[in-house]
Amino acid sequence: MKRLADYMKKTLAGIFLAGIVSTGASATTITFDTMPHSVFAPTPQIHIESGYQITPTSSFATFGSFGSGGLHLDICCGPFSSGVQLSRVGGGLFSVNSLDLSLYQDTALLPSWVHFVSFTGFRNNVAVAALSGGSGLPGTLTFGSAFAALDRLVIDTLAIPASFDPFIDYHLDVDNIVVTSVAAVPLPAAIWSLLAGLGLLVSLKAVRRRLRPTGC
After folding, report:
1. Where is the secretion signal located (predicted)?
2. Which residue, 41, 54, 78, is CA-closest to 155?
3. Residues 137 and 191 placed together within one structural domain of the fold
4. CATH assignment at residue 157
5. 193 and 114 in one domain?
6. What would the 3-class secondary structure string for the chain be?
7. Taking the model in full, what pTM does it have?
């Protein structure tokens, strides 16, 4: 019975993921070209581009681009936000394909084992994908299938170990985030027949257990 229940759980999870597919639309690149150099405001800012919105993850509302023109993040001691989250305007699922990462001099010189940036994908407020790294990360990050069908991507900076100078303004830019919108599609009739059959099996198993004669 337990094995059957486990099988049903796995089957239902697979059916859920199978019901989430790309719309077939071409990928969208968020370039941040229209983002101002910096924004100083008493409330968190929102950058909207190509149907997506980017907001700081904290109440520290300084938000903008710097240097290469991408989205700028400070790791220590700078005026810019240390984290942002990406989502579709009005909600909905999307997949993250790739993004460009630019490191400034001090950050680029940190050892590769020092992880100072993380990428976490969420679906229904549950973290389903994660990636972190530092100077060892390539200039263009390509994300795998784990970053498909998300409703939120959080890009955050991580604390630099105390053994390094805490007063250096470590920072980086994120640019050219390539995303593809995703939509849920109706499940085919055969899937519902499969679910009905699985339910019948569980019911028959329960009846057989109740009717099984007990030992004397």
Report:
1. 1-27
2. 54
3. no
4. 2.60.120
5. no
6. CHHHHHHHHHHHHHHHHHCEEECCCCCEEECCCCCCCCECCCCCCCEEECCEEEEECCCCCCECECCCCCEEEECCCCCCCCEEEEEECCCCEEEEEEEEEEECHHHHCCCCCCCCEEEEEEECCEEEEEEEECCCCCCEEECCHHHCCECEEEEEECCCCCCCCCCCCCEEEEEEEEEEEEEECCCCHHHHHHHHHHHHHHHHHHHHHHHCCCCC
7. 0.75
Say how far apart CA 86 and CA 150 lie, in whole Å. 10
Domain co-membership, 180 together with 197: no
* pLDDT range class, residue 88, cuts 50, 70, 90: very high
Statement to judge: residues 136 and 179 lie in one domain: yes
Q: How far apart are the first and last CA of the chain?
A: 24
CB 97 within 8 A of CB 143: yes
Q: Say whether both 29 and 62 belong to one domain.
A: yes
Among 86, 98, 80, 85, smallest CA distance to 172 is for: 80
| Mean pLDDT for the chain overall | 79
Residues 60/83, Cβ–Cβ less than 8 Å:
no
Does residue 33 sit in the same domain as residue 13?
A: no
**Is residue 205 predicted with pLDDT exceeding 80?**
no
Containing domain of residue 164, as a range? 23-184
- Residue 186: pLDDT band by 50, 70, 90 thresholds? low
Total number of domains constituting the chain:
2
